[in-house]
Amino acid sequence: MASETLTTALLGRLSQHPFYAVLSVLLAYFALGRIQQYWRLRHFKGPFSTGVSWLWHSRAVVAGDSHLHYGYATEKFGSIARVAPNHLITSSPELWAHINAVRSPYKRAEWYYHAARFEPGKDNVFTECDNEKHDARRRKMAAGYAGKENPGLEASVDTHVKELVHLIRSKYAAPATSTQSAMPMDMATKMQYLTLDVISDVGLGKAFGDLKADADVNDYLKASEEGLYIANLSFGLGISWLRNVPILGKAISPSEKDARGFGKMMAEARKSVEARKMKSTDERSDMLASFIRHGITGDDLFQEVFEQVLAGSDTTAASLRIIMLYIMSHPRVYAKLQAEIDDAVQAGKASAYPEVILDVEARKLPYLCAVIREAMRVHPPVVNLFSRVVPKGGDVVTVDGKEVFLPGDTMIGYAAWGMHRNNRAVYGADAEVFRPERWFVDEEAPGEKERLARMYKTNDLIFGHGRWVCLGRVVALIEIHKTVFELLRNFDFALTNPHEPWKIFNVMGLFSIGDMWVDVTERL
After folding, report:
1. pLDDT digit string (tens) for 429-475?
2. Which of the residues 33, 103, 333, 399 has an alpha carbon 20 to 30 A from that of 435?
3. How much helix, strand and coil, in percent to the nearest 5, is found in the chain?
4. What is the three-class DSSP state of 119?
5. Residue 129 in marked binding region
6. 41-522 is classed CATH 1.10.630.10
7. What's the pTM?
8. Which of 493, 519, 520 is nearest to 338 (CA)?
9. How far apart are CA 377 and CA 459, in angstroms?
10. Which residues pair with 360 in a beta bridge?
């Protein structure tokens, strides 16, 4: 009787205050939704609160080290871990390959990819979440990225590697016979100058000229960094969706009228695209010309080119910085690699100075290739979450020898640190150690050939897989092999501040790296 009286009184009060009634309904709806989310993924463990709240994930993203948190989660809770009420991550290479297969029924999660759009409602090949549209656009771009319609691709890379060597020799390197100390050089900045000049040259037909100027021409790099930090903060706080709100979204998004940030960078990129479109595609066959020939037009063309310049520059620059840091911080590896390079030069297995080593020559140097693979394994240069959506009806997968059911509409992403750096099952008990020699095994020994094949297959996932494999992989690897070879052929490097070799921050899965000061000495 007392409970009925209390209920009647409560209902009466709510009826007198409609606002509280609506608020109560909304809160109850929200609570019920969270309970349902928690329950449907209750079999997957994760850090405290991840079953009912996004707080853990938000803090990881905003702090700029989400890759470490994802690595921790899979290390502690298994190959599939929960990082939010409706989001899982995996460090299983087999599961990730299955999810990303060419004919996979999974799709990209709009929650993640639309947060990476440059402009509201406008997609590029990276942000497109409709599988059919993505595949169609990708087919139009494949030839340009693969170099099939860009015969000057390698020569363009060589031009800018030579400019990098000249810049270092003329401005920063101390003569080999000099007793004077070298002028410290921020390697992080120079690597970004190189990659931006390369991608603008092979993509737009004209380099931005950062290496020649030894400066951030047009403030592209400053603008890119500012834009990525803003995007990372809004994504971490869960407010990226505001950009899709009519009127408000346009007001808070980058504009080509902006004096700084992504907006300014977009304006400069559009000028380059428009100028290039005025020329015949036969005049110069580069990536942009290939895109046009294969039917990418209008604003779609601008979106793809801008994505290409931003992502192609940042990811390759991060790779080069990581590789050089691990070489410089491991004297044994440094000496062994430089000896292989010197031997190749003396034996005529590399193009004679001042020419740049050919890509085909560089790929025949086993220790160089092993060092590059190992550095990108122990410190993956791209650590995006890459959220996918499990198809409706769910999916039964095998992980670590056990069948696991993934409920439909669940988001699942990539834990780069767990899959590569911490993966003892694939790389051995010392997986966290930078040891290029792990890539050399006795293939005649039982099981070693198969183990090496699994290592390669897992390591290749750094560039994605199947439907979503990185289009720019060919260009990036040509650039990386040539640059590392030529830097160690021409100079000796030492970290200026070994106790703090760089400043690094994860922004939207890309690494913002700066203050990587080195002392340089000529070798020739």
Report:
1. 999 999 999 999 988 899 999 999 999 999 999 999 999 999 999 99
2. 399
3. 55, 10, 35
4. coil
5. no
6. yes
7. 0.92
8. 493
9. 6
10. none
